[in-house]
Inverse folding.
């Protein structure tokens, strides 16, 4: 596959950066890369502070602009086609395939729904996102006014967010409600991922079983909040993780030592 165009990651450094070399700050703040990898990037001139090359022992100061100029890389494969379901002066509604990330992250930049839709509609902004392996409808706003309008409506009862999920196991009851708080918990690879957490944000999902199979159940799910990976977390928290989910186990948290990624 061809390489993408590379990307500049920028950060305005916080007060917490002071008192340690830049190398240690980067390794602590961005644990997706090892200390050795950050050192190699600095020695290659990819990392700058306020426009000047920064070395491993550079002492950063709060307020400085940190830039990592990541060279072009080969992205993971993903299905790149999408369908337009509706288009007007205010919005574009598209059909996202499973396997295509909505937004950049986890090695994806150009192989994303956002990049594909903006190639056809450069002015759009996504109102929400779906997980990489979730297929379904994604709404894009075409104007600032539309973005504001949709954003205000998104967290209210004006918007019904309904999904269909395949649960592992066979719940006895047809109707299930999950209200487990969701927030970041430790993760060996990423540093943290969202999961069921007593210190997380209030969340609610309503499951209705529509078909029971030999070792699984098909359910319609309506989410009343929009936390990251909410359906996966709540299904697992109820004791019925999504069939094939490599990350969340019963209880709604990753298994100890699990290195699977949310996707």
């Amino acid at each position: 596959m061809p390489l993408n165009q590379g990307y500049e990651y920028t950060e305005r450094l916080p007060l917490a950066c002071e008192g340690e070399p830049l190398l240690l700050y980067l390794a602590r703040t961005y644990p997706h890369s090892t200390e050795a990898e950050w050192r190699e990037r600095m020695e290659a001139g990819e990392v700058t502070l306020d426009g000047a090359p920064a070395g491993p022992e550079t002492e950063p100061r709060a307020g400085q602009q940190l830039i990592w100029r990541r060279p072009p890389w080969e992205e993971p494969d993903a299905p790149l086609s999408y369908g337009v379901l509706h288009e007007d002066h205010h919005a574009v509604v598209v059909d996202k395939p499973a396997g295509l990330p909505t937004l950049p992250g986890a090695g994806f930049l150009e192989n994303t729904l956002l990049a594909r839709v903006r190639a056809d509609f450069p002015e759009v902004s996504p109102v929400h996102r779906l997980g990489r392996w979730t297929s379904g409808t994604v709404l894009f706003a075409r104007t600032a006014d539309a973005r504001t309008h949709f954003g205000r409506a998104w967290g209210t009862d004006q918007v019904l967010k309904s999904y269909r999920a395949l649960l592992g196991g066979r719940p006895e009851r047809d109707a299930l409600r999950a209200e487990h708080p969701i927030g970041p918990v430790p993760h060996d690879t990423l540093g943290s991922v969202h999961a069921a957490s007593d210190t997380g944000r209030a969340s609610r999902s309503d499951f209705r079983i529509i078909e029971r199979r030999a070792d699984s159940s098909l359910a319609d799910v309506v989410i009343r909040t929009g936390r990251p990976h909410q359906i996966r977390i709540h299904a697992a928290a109820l004791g019925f993780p999504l069939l094939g989910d490599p990350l969340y186990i019963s209880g709604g948290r990753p298994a100890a030592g699990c290195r699977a990624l949310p996707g």
About this structure: The CA atoms of residues 194 and 228 lie 7 Å apart. The chain is about 15% helix and 30% strand.
